[in-house]
Amino acid sequence: MDEIETAATEQTAADSSPGRSAVKKSGWALWFCLGLMVLIPTLAHFLIQPPEPVAGNVPQDQFSVSRAEFFLEQLVADGIPHPAGSEQNRLVRMKIVRLLKSFGYSVTLQETESEIHRRRLEADPNRLPICNVMTRLEGITDDPAIMLVTHFDSVPYGPGASDDGVGVAAMLEVARMLKQKGPPRRTVVFLFTDGEEYGLLGAKKFVEQHPWAKQVKWVINLEARGTDGPSVMFETGTESLSSIREFASVSRRPVSSSLFFEIYKRLPNDTDFSVFKKAGMQGFNFAYIGNVKHYHTPQDNLVNVDRSSFQHHGENMWRLVADLAYRDEMPEVRGQAVYFDVLARLLVWWPVSWSLWLTSFGGVVWVAIGCRNWKRERSSGLSLAVASGWLLLLFFALLLMGWICNLAWSLEGRLDNAWPESPLPILTSFWLLGVVTSAGLRLGFQGQLNAFSQWWVVWGAWMLLAAATSVFLAGASYLFIVPFVIAVLSHAVLRDLFQCSIDVVSLFALVATCVLWLPLELLFYDAVGLRLNTVLIGRVAFVMTVVWPLFVGTPTKVVWWVLGVSSFALLLFLTAGVVANPTV
To answer: 118-127, 169-178, 510-519, 534-543: lowest mean pLDDT where?
Structure first.
């Protein structure tokens, strides 16, 4: 009898869901999960890249960087900065005028001046001369115009090859292509602004003073905050739904997310697009942001321009304007959207109003799962309370350990530079610390936790986060809504209908979480560096809560192996970070 009771106890411990068929667990799901957390960012690194440069012998209706880079060389090959008000700025301006005239355009100069605080200038005047370069391709209808925008001035201490020479050259090539394509249905305005680096001065003067501004409804702006990386569509107008539909229909390599704008509007940064957006115009704001260490420095030169980024930038502008200018009907400007790309291959979107409905739908399924499985999974009020306590403990332990790790890096001076020479060991150390902390907490409680209760509580918390972000931070809501809905649907189908284990069910939501959350690591670092490292700590904590049910259902012996391997890897990456990033 004792032997039978012992065997039954061991079998129950091996199966985290006693109401189901008891199958001894090997911990494969946890290892598979950790492998995904390595594989998906690696895959994203290769997929979320700009397209290969297109040769110059392709048809004229395809954007080719090989043709456009001739214009860039004309503008910045000498490597001399050309800030607003300088003689070099005038020379660059006249080169743009000559090129536009060679395409057959009639060019207009908007000469004005703007007040500027003298500390922002190397010279001393209180008023800065500004001269925008403008032209237009007349449409055959009276529909509102589409405007292409880029600024041609640079900062005083850099030649501005990427910021914004690439934008100027891409727009010149698009102007040439449109001229050859023939009259569009809608007028296309080309605006090369001056004084952007001193406070968006040319854009402001255009909106305030020039009559063409009242004719424009859609704007496509090109910017750069580095010298490589994908062309990211990081901002739309106030009514983003129509813009996203349009972008999704024409882009072959979309990199965009409503999360980007939620972050961007909280940063002290602006582009010319900010001026046009405030004036009620809709549209698209693009920038590539890789290699930020070259931004606004002498290294923003022709040598460091990435031709693939150049291709992506120009291709995005060309595809949008070629569709908007020649289509029969313009998109209806109404409503805001939640949107995100899936590894730069698919752009997913829905109206903002759907977010709460999706969360509510998932909530109904979540409640139904709880009611259906309460007895079969041997759940109880006590097991739910224990699961809630462990989830809170895990989350705050992850935040605390991440904060300690961040403090250690900061005290060593390796975060004094927001973009250190070798960021990968530092960024990876936070994620490895998350695994170590989770494994340590699991081992700290040797009793048998109820895996279903842990799963149900985790996704209940994500449901609340989905609802909260839907109301207060709509652009970020998809990060919680999509994993939550996939989690409850996979449980309802795979667990309740096909009797799959809780580990298999958890993996589907984990894949969705990794695909949505982990690729952001690359773009987020390029955008803000390590200045907002606390956000990184929070991301680790949220993602590890999804992994936690797998830790609960994994045998103790396997968790010990996970703890040992992750601790060893953490030590290696900490050492690599110290060696590769000496103190400042």
So the answer is: 118-127
- Rg, C-alpha atoms of the chain: 27
pLDDT at 559 > cutoff 60: yes
Nearest to residue 195, comparing CAs of 138, 270, 253? 270
Q: CA 573: distance to chain centroid?
A: 25
Query: In the predicted model, is pLDDT for residue 275 greater than 90?
Result: yes
Distance (Å, whole) CA 483 – CA 515 = 10
- φ, ψ for residue 466, nearest 5 deg: -60, -40
Does 583 have pLDDT greater than 90?
Answer: no
d(CA 80, CA 154): 10
For 16, 368, 372, 495, 507, the CA distances from 492, given in Å and listed in that order, are 18, 9, 10, 6, 14
Q: What is the dihedral of CA 84, 86, 92, 95, to 10 degrees?
A: 120
The letter for the amino acid at 260 is F
Decide if 48 contacts 523 (C-beta within 8 A): yes
Distance set, CA 367 to CA 356, 372, 491, 542 (Å): 16, 9, 12, 22
Q: What is the pLDDT of residues 465-476, one digit of tens each?
A: 999 999 999 999
Pairs from 96-99 (Cβ < 8 Å, separation ≥ 24): 96/133, 96/152, 96/168, 96/172, 96/192, 97/133, 99/71, 99/74, 99/172
**Cα distances (angstroms) measured from residue 579 to each of 425, 433, 566, 574:** 10, 19, 20, 9
CB atoms inside a 10 Å sphere around CB 70: 13
Look up tokens 């598979």; give the residue.
Answer: 32
pLDDT (0 to 100) of residue 133: 98
Domain ranges (residues) in the chain: 2-48+352-580, 69-342
Each residue's pLDDT tens digit, 84-101: 999 999 999 999 999 999
Q: What is the pLDDT of residue 26?
A: 64
Prediction pTM value: 0.90
- The answer to whether residues 157 and 297 touch, using CB atoms and an 8 Å cutoff, is yes
Fold assignment, 69-342: Aminopeptidase (3.40.630)
Cis peptide before 328 (omega within 30 of 0): no
Q: What is the largest CA-CA distance in the chain?
A: 99
